[in-house]
Amino acid sequence: MAAVDQIPVTVLTGFLGSGKTTVLNHLLRQPELNGVVAIINEFGEVALDHLLVESSEDRLALLDNGCICCSVREDLIETLADLASRRAAGTIPPFHRVLVETTGLADPVPVLHTLMTAPDVAGRYRIDGVVATVDAVNGARTLEAHVEAVRQVAVADRLLVTKTDLAADDELSRLDAQLAAINPVAARHHVRDGIVDPARVLDAGLFDPSARSADVVRWFDLAAQAANAPHHHVEHHCDDENCGHHGHHAHNTDVSSYSLIIDEPIQRDAFARWLDYVAALKGEDLLRFKAIVHVAEQPDAPMVVHGVQHVFHPPITLAGWPSADRRSRLVFIVRGIPRQIIENTLCKFAAVSRDAIQRSAA
User: Fold this and answer.
1) What CATH number is given to the structural domain containing 24?
2) Domain co-membership, 22 together with 121
3) Cβ-based burial of 58 (10 A; exposed 0-12, middle 13-18, buried ≥19)
4) Most confident region among 18-27, 42-51, 319-328, 344-353 by mean pLDDT
């Protein structure tokens, strides 16, 4: 299946009590979800009864706005493959997008790995984006106590800060700063009562093969500026010997972000070799990587790459550069990988000259 024909998938994640189900309940009522399949954990947790047009014993339900709801089977791969087969056979209404809800305790990375690598899935679907909900009242404490919550925020493309009407202004400001420290490149939106514009959740568009190159480059420029802003390193130390949390590793997340700009073309094979090296040796700590690359062999067509830990999505080639600025932009969200190590590996394995590496955004 060609990249433009792959079905985009949005992953909705968030820790227990973060308001994810409330957001999902709101989304499922919106007309914009016509033609969307929502893969949810349990029908019982989402109020569907008055929206149902049709339901079946095999955990499929058609809502009155045209959205198809499906409770996940034991295996997400099986669920996605089955949906694609039914779509092709015409036994369910056609759909053009999938929204996957993760469980509150889930690390979203395995879901992303499934979408990027599973043979029955990767050719039919593509990742559109990851959206994470964070509770404005308890979010700061949750991030300090649970490493899973930190990983949900770190890999997100967009963050929905929920229950903002229940949080004091100073409390909300501290949480915003904490989220910016973990993931400065994710857009943050404040949400009350789960009410959110579906456009804030669906269609992140960065890795859409049909995306306009100007929009993609603009995102990388803004992300580079955010990632290189000061104080984007989260480290919380606890000296309380009576601390009740499960180990201090969850307090000291060691998550940081940074970007590099490379002012020279990069050979395709050399860049691929560097990716292989980073994935093999540092993949576990490479929480999210996104890049737009000036490839020497195709100077007029930028290449967009993104990865999660040791798995990288097939590159997307854009139609052209939007301006004369053809510098490569690389954005990293990592755990315990110093910037200098990345720079050294780029020089050694990607044949990038050190003088061409710029640390600050233009």
Assistant:
1) 3.40.50.300
2) yes
3) exposed
4) 344-353
185 within 8 A of 306, measured Cβ to Cβ: no
Number of domains in the chain: 2
Q: Please give the Cα distance from 7 to 2 (Å, whole number).
A: 10
The set of residues, in sequence order, having a beta carbon less than 8 Å from that of 169 and lying 6+ positions away, is: none
Question: How would DSSP label each residue in 201-220?
Answer: HS---TT-TT--HHHHHHHH
Residue 166 CA to residue 216 CA, distance in Å, equals 35
Residue 207 lies in a domain: no
Domain hosting 349: range is 213-358
pLDDT at position 295 is: 97
Closest CA to 181 of 245, 142, 227, 137: 227
Residue 206 lies in a domain: no
The closest alpha carbon to 206, from 197, 195, 217, belongs to 217
| CA-angle at 270, arms to 266 and 275, nearest 5° | 105
Q: What is the mean pLDDT of residues 166-192?
A: 91
Q: Name the β-bridge partners of 311.
A: 308
- Are residues 177 and 264 located together in one domain of the fold? no
- Say if residues 100 and 299 touch (Cβ distance below 8 Å): no
